[in-house]
Design a protein that fits this description.
8-stranded mixed sheet; globular; 7 helices; about 35% helix; about 190 residues; binds coenzyme A; alpha+beta; single chain; Aminopeptidase
């Protein structure tokens, strides 16, 4: 897919709680980077090497996110009070060859202080909706086997369909699949 996020998913609307879902823009890169680094440190402590987590940098992540968003990668952000970003998701074509899932959710992170309030579910559904509208009938998400967030994906109807060792640290990863996005979204 790799389409422009701004053109494909401009706005998903606000709910009763005042949280907004909208397409990410390059100007969101700094806020996304902060949540990315903070949630990595909170989530992967004891799972990934400490030095890798300590070395993570807001500035480096912000540059990478800005470049991705400028290149047109699709992402949604959840905002409160009209501007503060509290979560985001990035998605597009599946990067896994040989699997029968055409879409992939690459990232899904909700800031630690805002977890367990339904934003993760809304962001995931927003990503699925955009993938589906972009022609993807199915989707996969890779999650570290030791990350308890994998049970969140089971709660959202995903089934563990494949395992692999991730490429940087060799940690076991599970692939959760949604074979029919249209049914998931109905
Ligand atoms: C995983 C994550 C995105 C979920 O978002 P969230 O906003 O905290 O979750 P929600 O409030 O939307 O939860 C929706 C439902 O899933 C359940 N749930 C959330 N996290 C769960 C978990 N770890 N295990 C089991 N169920 C979980 C909630 O209880 C809720 O259940 P309900 O439908 O009965 O109300 C978020 O917690 C997060 O960013 N975690 C850290 C980073 C991470 O691991 N990201 C995934 C990388 S692959």
């Amino acid at each position: 897919m790799n389409h422009s996020a701004a053109s494909r998913a401009p706005h998903w609307g606000r709910d009763m709680t005042g949280v907004d879902l909208r397409a990410a823009t390059p100007d969101d890169a700094g806020a996304i980077a902060r949540i990315y680094v903070d949630t990595w440190r909170a989530t992967y402590a004891g799972i990934l090497p400490d030095d890798a987590l300590v070395r993570m940098s807001y500035d480096v992540q912000a540059r990478q996110w800005r470049a991705l968003l400028q290149a047109g990668d699709a992402a949604l952000v959840a905002t409160v009070a009209h501007s503060n970003i509290i979560g985001f998701t990035g998605y597009g074509p599946s990067r896994s060859r040989g699997l029968s899932y055409s879409g992939e959710v690459y990232t899904l992170y909700v800031a630690p202080d805002h977890q367990n309030h339904g934003w993760g579910r809304r962001l995931l559904r927003g990503a699925f909706r955009d993938l589906s509208r972009g022609g993807h009938e199915s989707a996969i998400i890779w999650v570290l086997g030791l990350n308890p967030s994998r049970f969140f994906y089971e709660r959202q109807g995903g089934a563990k369909v494949v395992e692999r060792d991730e490429s940087v640290w060799g940690v076991r990863e599970f692939g959760y699949g949604w074979p029919r996005l249209a049914e998931t979204l109905s």
